[in-house]
Amino acid sequence: ALRLGTQISRDRLRAFKFGCGGSRRSLKVAVVGAVGGIGQPLALLLKQNPHISRLSLHDLRNTAGVAADLSHINSRATVCHFEGKDGLKKAMDKADIVVVPAGLPRKPGMKREDLVGVNASVACEVAHAASAVCPGALLALITNPINVIVPIVATILQAKGTYDPNRLFGVTSLDVVRSKAFIGDFLNVDPQTVDLPVIGGHTGRTILPILSQCQPTYKGTDEERKALIKRIQEAGTEVVNAKDGLGSATLSMAYAASHFVNSLIRGIKGSKDECIVECAYVDSDVTEAKFFATQLILGPQGIKENLGLPEMDDEEKQALESMLPLLKKSIENGIKLGMEMA
Ligand code: LMR
Predict the structure, then answer these.
(1) Which of 87, 286, 301, 323 is within CB 3.0–4.6 Å of 82 for a Cys-Cys bond?
(2) CA gyration radius for the chain?
(3) Model confidence over 301-328: pLDDT tens digits?
């Protein structure tokens, strides 16, 4: 503890207040789509991470106001802002992490796949910019349809010679966050204490919560279990319908994505005593699908280890088998689009 009158340097005082240890490297995080419904709360949450020294905001327009607003928060990150096509490379220049909520959300009646036409171009621009100005960055994509967008970006990066499969992530954390929330409610326990893998992709039947591995043990009737899985798989649509034309999940998505980015940062910081495990949709040889979400151990270079398929009961194995063709079709579509756009 500090005694009154102790001489202490400003640096030591900082370390005392904010903690030290691990790598002291300062980190630049770029948010592409920072003015949108997800982008703003996401930027707000990231502004609170003391390891981020530079928070770079990009959007088509109106970034100045969001940046001015955030810059009045007395946390470490300095905030810079860029706009339009020309600003994208400047925003992403030498970034350590690029997180991408940019793109259009769906409206009631739409499937995530219906967004490919508009959102593929966003993915394409991000991939080209990343190849040019931050080829070593960890890329965390939120833009829908994730099942297709991640293969698009991977294919473009591959064509540019800058693809590192350990550094590209489709953010599926919201599926885990939702599963924990719904199971916590059902079991009447704190959702923060719930843990389970959610594997596959990020739409409908491709989202596979592995309830058999849930901690604490999930106990429910067959009917309750089916209803719970259905609710997790259709949770995005539940929000889209509740928002009634005003978009899709923004706040819970920002929460889940910031949690994921914070985990990427903990991985970069590389604390030896900490094992950082997150689910994300990544390049994979775990199943026949070339991209697949499983639990990953994160480290300084992104994915340190893919934990592969969890143990599953017969119903879960069957659900996996039956959704794989759907997921594979989306991936093939993504690779084809990526080749056209490379
Ligand atoms: C979600 O899961 O909420 C997002 O993917 C947005 C959507 O369209 O459902």
Answers:
(1) 87
(2) 20
(3) 999 999 999 999 999 999 999 999 999 9
Q: Which of 115, 148, 174, 207 to mutate to test the pocket of ligand 1 (most atoms within 8 A of CB)?
A: 174
Q: Which residue has the tokens 């910031």?
A: 258
Tokens for 227?
Answer: 């209803």
DSSP helix, strand, coil percent of the chain (3-state; round to 5): 50, 20, 35
End-to-end CA separation in angstroms for the chain:
57
Q: How far is the CA of 22 from the centre of ligand 1 (A)?
A: 35
Is 81 designated active site? no
Complex ipTM value: 0.99
Q: pTM of this prediction?
A: 0.93
Catalytic position from the list 51, 58, 202, 259 = 202
What SS3 state is found at 92?
A: helix
**Dist. CA 115 → ligand 1 center (Å):** 11
**Cβ proximity of 101 and 225 under 8 Å:** no
How many other β-carbons are positioned within 10 Å of the β-carbon of residue 299? Answer: 18
Assess contact for 55 and 63: CB atoms under 8 A.
no
Residue nearest to atom 2 of ligand 1 (CA): 236
Three-class SS of residue 209?
Answer: strand
pLDDT tens per residue, range 132-151: 999 999 999 999 999 999 99
Q: Is there an atom of ligand 1 within 6 Å of 258 CB?
A: no
247 within 8 A of 37, measured Cβ to Cβ? yes
Phi, psi (rounded to 5 degrees) for 216: -65, 165
- Rounded to whole angstroms, how far apart are CA atoms 306 and 216? 23
In sequence order, what are the residues at sequence separation of 6 or more whose Cβ sits closer than 8 angstroms to the Cβ of residue 1?
A: none
Identity at 138, one-letter amino acid code:
L
